[in-house]
Amino acid sequence: MSSAPPIQTAVIGLGKMGVMHAAMISSIPNMALAALVDLNPATGAQTQSIGPQAPFYSSITELFEKTAHLDAVVISTPQFTHRETGIACLEHGLHVFLEKPLAHNLADAKKLADAAQQHPEQVTAVGFMKGHYPLWIEAARRLQAGYIGEPRRYRAAVYFSQVLSPKNGWTFTKELSGGGILINSGVHLLHFLNMLFGQGTSVTARSTPLHSKVEDTLAALIEYPSGLFGSYDASWSLPGHQTESTCVLVEGSEGIMEITDDWLRVYHINGKEGVAKGWTKTHRGEFDHAKFNLSPDYGGEGYYNQLEDFALAIREKRPARYDWQTGLQIQQLTDAIYRSTETKQVVSVEN
User: Fold this and answer.
1) Of 291, 267, 287, residue with least CA distance to 277
2) Which residues, at least 6 apart from 239, have a Cβ–Cβ distance to it below 8 Å?
3) Which residues neighbour 43 within 8 Å (Cβ) at sequence distance 6 or greater?
4) For residue 246, what is the domain's CATH number?
5) CB 86 within 8 A of CB 172
6) 43 in a domain, yes or no?
7) Can you tell me whether residue 294 is helix, strand or coil?
8) What pLDDT, in 10s, does the model give residues 3-14?
């Protein structure tokens, strides 16, 4: 057990994700909840009433003025506030964890990434919690180790049942959220594809609203420098998916790999050293050893692991697994997909 004092951490924004982070921080070794921040005092009182105990402030200005010792913040506010809040916290000398996406548009994402480079002594992280699934990290390792030879093509999809009727609010206002299914939820899958294959170079995409004013369903073709290409399909308007459901099928020169939220299957055509011929299957339970799982049905281990990695990065003076430069890469890909849906043309991914 480390003798170092706990990392004093404030949670900014007490919506669903903020409350979850506040509940988990006390379970992270050497991390302590120092403050709760939200524009609405009633939200703060409600959060305190269900467990997390820390002083409440209604602005980051008040937080900075009244908190004697603060090391880090977890920002769970809407993405259109990320640039201003994130940079202010960096300039105050804090380590900063931002919920995904990095920002609601590419311009703000670039400013955040630039700010992080100007403060290299501070840890920045983005909440790509699915990228902290041990199963998905293992899938990326096996793919890159050549378990199925050279990847040639993939199919990737993410579906769930969130938008089945007309919706309003900032999430469904493009100027505030940046878009619909792609930027609000589908970025988890884009990030996983980045883990598997690196950054794409060009995209062709189409999208349409079904119940809201942003895209509720979207399809894209993503191409890579090696000649690899893959299809990406996303919808939050499909009945029958009460929790977000992800599947990636990769076809390689020596076999195939299929990855879901719960298991990893590999089929090798001939078998080779370290890889059996035919099918092998691995369940997430073989890798999931998170010490605290607030949401077993959806990503609980990822939520814990990302905060633990943030805390360890601060302690060890190293970058977080997914920092703001990673967030910028995913924002560049997201931006290219949106531009393709608008122009109906092939669009190069900015690099």
Assistant:
1) 267
2) 161, 164
3) 14
4) 3.30.360.10
5) no
6) yes
7) coil
8) 789 999 999 999
